[in-house]
Design brief:
Elements (H helix, E strand, L loop, with lengths): L2 E6 L9 H16 L4 E6 H4 L6 H4 L16 H8 L2 E7 L7 H10 L6 E4 L2 E4 L5 E7 L7 H4 L4 H11 L4 E7 L9 H16 L3
Parallel strand pairs: 1-2, 1-3, 3-6, 6-7
Antiparallel strand pairs: 4-5
Helix pairs in contact: 1-8
Length: about 200
Protein backbone atom coordinates (compact mmCIF):
# COMPACT_ATOMS: atom_id res chain seq x y z
CA UNK A 1 0.00 0.00 0.00
CA UNK A 2 1.24 3.46 -0.90
CA UNK A 3 0.53 6.73 0.85
CA UNK A 4 -0.27 9.57 -1.55
CA UNK A 5 -0.33 13.30 -0.81
CA UNK A 6 -2.76 15.26 -2.99
CA UNK A 7 -1.54 18.85 -2.61
CA UNK A 8 -4.06 21.41 -3.89
CA UNK A 9 -3.13 25.08 -4.36
CA UNK A 10 -5.92 27.05 -5.95
CA UNK A 11 -8.22 29.55 -4.25
CA UNK A 12 -11.09 28.66 -6.60
CA UNK A 13 -13.47 25.90 -5.47
CA UNK A 14 -13.66 22.53 -7.20
CA UNK A 15 -16.72 23.48 -9.24
CA UNK A 16 -15.07 26.43 -10.97
CA UNK A 17 -11.38 25.49 -10.92
CA UNK A 18 -10.22 24.00 -14.20
CA UNK A 19 -7.12 22.80 -12.38
CA UNK A 20 -9.20 20.76 -9.97
CA UNK A 21 -11.44 19.41 -12.74
CA UNK A 22 -8.37 17.70 -14.15
CA UNK A 23 -6.64 16.79 -10.89
CA UNK A 24 -9.81 15.46 -9.22
CA UNK A 25 -10.43 13.26 -12.27
CA UNK A 26 -6.85 11.99 -11.95
CA UNK A 27 -7.32 11.20 -8.26
CA UNK A 28 -10.61 9.39 -8.80
CA UNK A 29 -9.05 7.28 -11.56
CA UNK A 30 -6.02 6.64 -9.35
CA UNK A 31 -8.23 5.38 -6.50
CA UNK A 32 -10.04 3.08 -8.93
CA UNK A 33 -6.80 1.46 -10.09
CA UNK A 34 -5.06 1.54 -6.68
CA UNK A 35 -7.88 0.79 -4.22
CA UNK A 36 -5.56 -0.16 -1.36
CA UNK A 37 -3.60 3.10 -1.41
CA UNK A 38 -4.27 5.93 1.03
CA UNK A 39 -4.82 9.37 -0.52
CA UNK A 40 -4.41 12.29 1.89
CA UNK A 41 -5.82 15.59 0.61
CA UNK A 42 -3.96 18.77 1.55
CA UNK A 43 -6.02 21.77 0.39
CA UNK A 44 -3.55 24.50 1.29
CA UNK A 45 -6.08 27.33 1.28
CA UNK A 46 -8.46 25.45 3.57
CA UNK A 47 -5.57 24.50 5.84
CA UNK A 48 -4.55 28.13 6.26
CA UNK A 49 -0.86 27.62 5.51
CA UNK A 50 0.94 30.85 6.46
CA UNK A 51 4.38 32.21 5.67
CA UNK A 52 7.14 31.11 8.01
CA UNK A 53 8.12 33.75 10.54
CA UNK A 54 11.41 34.33 12.34
CA UNK A 55 10.37 32.21 15.31
CA UNK A 56 9.55 29.31 12.98
CA UNK A 57 12.93 29.21 11.25
CA UNK A 58 14.75 27.75 14.25
CA UNK A 59 12.95 24.49 13.54
CA UNK A 60 14.58 24.18 10.11
CA UNK A 61 17.45 22.62 12.04
CA UNK A 62 15.33 20.73 14.56
CA UNK A 63 16.78 19.74 17.88
CA UNK A 64 16.65 16.07 18.94
CA UNK A 65 13.34 15.16 20.52
CA UNK A 66 11.13 17.54 18.55
CA UNK A 67 8.17 15.35 17.64
CA UNK A 68 6.47 14.65 14.33
CA UNK A 69 3.34 16.43 15.54
CA UNK A 70 5.15 19.76 15.87
CA UNK A 71 3.10 22.44 14.02
CA UNK A 72 6.06 23.52 11.88
CA UNK A 73 7.74 20.15 11.29
CA UNK A 74 4.68 17.93 10.81
CA UNK A 75 4.45 18.78 7.10
CA UNK A 76 8.06 17.79 6.43
CA UNK A 77 7.61 14.47 8.24
CA UNK A 78 4.34 13.85 6.40
CA UNK A 79 6.05 14.57 3.08
CA UNK A 80 8.92 12.22 3.93
CA UNK A 81 6.59 9.40 4.91
CA UNK A 82 4.53 9.61 1.70
CA UNK A 83 5.33 7.50 -1.35
CA UNK A 84 3.73 9.62 -4.08
CA UNK A 85 2.78 13.26 -4.57
CA UNK A 86 0.08 14.87 -6.67
CA UNK A 87 0.41 18.64 -7.05
CA UNK A 88 -2.43 20.68 -8.53
CA UNK A 89 -2.04 24.41 -9.16
CA UNK A 90 -2.49 27.09 -11.84
CA UNK A 91 0.35 29.12 -13.30
CA UNK A 92 0.07 32.57 -11.72
CA UNK A 93 2.26 35.39 -12.97
CA UNK A 94 4.68 32.88 -14.51
CA UNK A 95 5.12 30.99 -11.23
CA UNK A 96 3.32 28.88 -8.63
CA UNK A 97 0.78 30.39 -6.20
CA UNK A 98 2.45 31.88 -3.14
CA UNK A 99 0.66 29.48 -0.82
CA UNK A 100 2.33 26.53 -2.55
CA UNK A 101 5.73 28.17 -2.12
CA UNK A 102 4.87 28.64 1.57
CA UNK A 103 4.11 24.91 1.84
CA UNK A 104 7.42 24.07 0.18
CA UNK A 105 9.19 26.21 2.79
CA UNK A 106 7.59 23.96 5.44
CA UNK A 107 8.68 20.69 3.86
CA UNK A 108 12.28 21.65 3.02
CA UNK A 109 13.83 20.91 6.40
CA UNK A 110 17.43 19.87 6.88
CA UNK A 111 17.78 16.41 8.46
CA UNK A 112 14.18 15.49 7.58
CA UNK A 113 13.65 15.81 3.82
CA UNK A 114 17.26 16.58 2.89
CA UNK A 115 20.64 16.73 4.58
CA UNK A 116 23.93 18.57 4.12
CA UNK A 117 26.99 16.46 3.36
CA UNK A 118 30.62 17.12 2.51
CA UNK A 119 29.62 16.87 -1.16
CA UNK A 120 26.64 19.22 -0.77
CA UNK A 121 22.92 18.77 -0.02
CA UNK A 122 21.35 15.35 -0.59
CA UNK A 123 17.62 14.66 -0.82
CA UNK A 124 16.15 12.11 1.58
CA UNK A 125 12.96 11.43 -0.40
CA UNK A 126 14.49 9.12 -3.00
CA UNK A 127 12.52 6.33 -4.63
CA UNK A 128 9.28 8.31 -4.63
CA UNK A 129 7.32 9.79 -7.54
CA UNK A 130 5.40 12.99 -8.23
CA UNK A 131 3.01 14.40 -10.79
CA UNK A 132 2.23 18.06 -11.32
CA UNK A 133 -1.15 18.96 -12.80
CA UNK A 134 -1.10 22.60 -13.83
CA UNK A 135 -3.33 24.91 -15.87
CA UNK A 136 -2.02 27.87 -17.85
CA UNK A 137 -3.76 30.67 -19.68
CA UNK A 138 -1.24 30.92 -22.52
CA UNK A 139 0.76 28.56 -24.70
CA UNK A 140 4.07 27.69 -23.06
CA UNK A 141 5.01 24.86 -25.40
CA UNK A 142 7.33 26.77 -27.73
CA UNK A 143 11.04 27.12 -26.98
CA UNK A 144 10.74 30.88 -26.36
CA UNK A 145 7.66 30.64 -24.15
CA UNK A 146 9.22 27.85 -22.08
CA UNK A 147 11.76 30.35 -20.79
CA UNK A 148 8.95 32.33 -19.15
CA UNK A 149 7.31 29.33 -17.48
CA UNK A 150 8.70 29.22 -13.94
CA UNK A 151 5.97 27.27 -12.16
CA UNK A 152 6.37 23.67 -13.21
CA UNK A 153 10.09 24.30 -13.74
CA UNK A 154 10.55 25.44 -10.13
CA UNK A 155 8.43 22.63 -8.70
CA UNK A 156 10.32 19.99 -10.68
CA UNK A 157 13.64 21.47 -9.49
CA UNK A 158 12.82 21.78 -5.78
CA UNK A 159 11.24 18.32 -5.60
CA UNK A 160 14.36 16.87 -7.27
CA UNK A 161 16.39 18.69 -4.61
CA UNK A 162 14.50 16.58 -2.06
CA UNK A 163 15.38 13.43 -4.00
CA UNK A 164 12.24 12.93 -6.11
CA UNK A 165 13.34 12.67 -9.74
CA UNK A 166 10.43 10.59 -11.09
CA UNK A 167 8.35 13.64 -12.01
CA UNK A 168 5.52 13.83 -14.56
CA UNK A 169 3.71 16.96 -15.74
CA UNK A 170 0.22 17.37 -17.15
CA UNK A 171 -0.05 20.95 -18.42
CA UNK A 172 -3.32 22.31 -19.78
CA UNK A 173 -2.28 25.28 -21.93
CA UNK A 174 -4.16 28.06 -23.79
CA UNK A 175 -7.11 28.12 -21.41
CA UNK A 176 -7.43 31.90 -21.64
CA UNK A 177 -6.69 32.26 -25.36
CA UNK A 178 -9.56 33.76 -27.35
CA UNK A 179 -10.91 31.31 -29.89
CA UNK A 180 -9.76 28.17 -28.09
CA UNK A 181 -12.45 25.62 -27.24
CA UNK A 182 -11.64 25.51 -23.53
CA UNK A 183 -14.15 22.82 -22.62
CA UNK A 184 -12.72 20.53 -25.30
CA UNK A 185 -9.17 21.30 -24.16
CA UNK A 186 -9.96 20.50 -20.52
CA UNK A 187 -11.77 17.32 -21.55
CA UNK A 188 -8.70 16.21 -23.52
CA UNK A 189 -6.45 16.82 -20.54
CA UNK A 190 -8.84 14.96 -18.24
CA UNK A 191 -8.67 11.99 -20.60
CA UNK A 192 -4.87 12.19 -20.54
CA UNK A 193 -4.84 12.43 -16.73
CA UNK A 194 -7.15 9.44 -16.30
CA UNK A 195 -4.87 7.36 -18.53
CA UNK A 196 -1.71 8.32 -16.63
CA UNK A 197 -3.42 7.58 -13.30
CA UNK A 198 -3.64 3.89 -14.21
CA UNK A 199 0.12 3.38 -13.86
CA UNK A 200 1.16 6.25 -11.57
Amino acid sequence: MSRVLYIKANSKPEGTSRTFQISDAFVEAYKKHHPDDEVVVLDLYKMGIHFLEEKDLEYHNPAPGVGKDHPILKYAYQFLEADKYIFAEPLWNLGIPAILKAYIDYICVSSITFQYTAEGPVGLCKGKKAINITTRGGDYSSDIAKEFELGDKYLRTIIAFLGVTDFTTIAADQLDVIGVDVEKKVAEDIEKAVKIAETF
